[in-house]
Amino acid sequence: MKSFMRFFPGILIIFSFYIHIVANAEVRICDFCPGLINQFTTEDSIQVEDQLFSNHDILEITIATDLKTLIRDIGNNPEYHQGVISYALPGFDRVSVNVRLRTRGEYRKSRTNCDFPPLRIKFDKENTRNTLFQSHSDLKMVNHCRKKWDIYENYLLKEYLLYRIYNYITDFSYKVRLLKVTYRDIKGEVDPFTRFGFFIEGTKKMAERNSAVEIETKGIRKEITDYNISNLFFLFQYMIGNTDWSIPGLHNVKILALGKSKYVPIPYDFDFSGVIGTSYALPDTLLPIASVRQRCWRGPGRTQEELAPTFEIFNEKKEEIYTMYRIFSHLNERQINKILKYYDKFYVIINDPRKIKREFGQTCSSRRKTP
Question: pTM of the full predicted structure?
Fold first, then answer.
């Protein structure tokens, strides 16, 4: 007995150490148990949240709501309508989340232009815990516009890729996630159907990610926005042939404030861009172009030296951008080649000193319109 008591303190220490190891091991294992999702730590929850936009695999979802009432509510102040979004990830049970949905937009909300408008989706934080939508209070959703015309789905897919391009260029951009959406009418008046769509990151989330806040005041001139980031903005719009934006008017542009006097423009809505070439896109009559396929530099006049750092970024990202298109399986080869040829012309311009002077020396709105 005396011998045992002599070794007892050492045995107690070893036993305590063993218990500590086992307890920690159980915590680490349980963090990844599918049936114990509520055991996630804060860090694990962040990883779940990031899966929505950090993963570019197509996400299949179902939206169940009163479809007719929703898509017909397209007045100036549309209401939110109750609905459910559900999805299933490989190896996990199906997840359903209660949401509120309403129509949004301007051009694509009109029934003259689209029979299925874009949507805004509101989430209740309590319903999204440990789902892909965790910590997302709202999302925009771009839809197929016209149910029976496949070309409109092609427009949507091309627009999705433009958001992805700008993600390559700068973090001051909206993240997107491609969707395959099945729509189910809870009243049974509309047969279920499935179309492409994509989520757009909420402005508040995008601003927080960049340590900034949104400014909703109109009248901020493009000349006083952040020089380097604005050059990226202007050149991207030029690259894709998009003139349908206004910084002072906050038209298809959000403004973020970094500190007290640093303003950053964030582009969105690219369906009027030349690279997409929608059948309904027409250029502003005040601009010296006859077609949206013609490029038009709408930034302030810049020299080659001033734009050199911006050109360098676009040149560095060229191969990534082209590869993204080449491996994108939802557009056919002919469509991809047409897009890349459009970009080829852009890259010729930004690497030719004479063309640089001609294209970027002054804003195109100050030129005479060519006949």
Answer: 0.85
CA 10 to chain centre: 60
- In 341-352, which positions are buried (b, 16+ CB within 10 angstroms) versus exposed (e)? ebbeebeebbee
Query: Using the 8-state DSSP alphabet, how is residue 361 labeled?
Result: S
C-alpha span between 145 and 53 (Å, rounded): 23
Residue 51: CB partners within 8 Å, gap ≥ 6? 132
- Residue 188's SS3 state is coil
Q: What are phi and psi of 213, to 5 degrees?
A: -130, 150
User: What gap in Å lies between CA 235 and CA 200, rounded to an integer?
Assistant: 22
pLDDT (tens, 9 = 90+) of the chain, 371 residues, equals: 544 455 545 544 444 444 344 334 333 322 323 332 332 333 444 444 468 998 999 999 999 999 999 989 888 899 999 999 999 988 889 999 999 999 998 777 676 778 889 999 999 988 899 999 998 999 999 999 887 778 999 999 999 999 999 999 999 999 999 999 999 999 999 999 999 999 999 999 999 999 999 999 999 998 889 999 999 999 999 999 999 999 999 999 999 999 888 999 999 999 999 999 999 999 999 999 999 999 999 999 999 999 999 999 999 999 999 999 999 999 999 999 999 999 999 999 999 999 999 999 999 975 555 44
- Of 251, 244, 248, 243, the closest CA to residue 263 belongs to 248
Extract long-range pairs of 73-76: CB within 8 Å, 24+ residues apart.
73/102, 73/103, 74/103, 74/109, 74/110, 74/111, 74/117
Helices and strands (DSSP H and E) totals, the chain: 9, 10
Residue with tokens 């397209």: 74
- Residue 258: enclosing H or E segment and its boundaries? strand 253-258
State how far the Cα of 182 lies from the Cα of 264, in Å rounded to an integer: 36
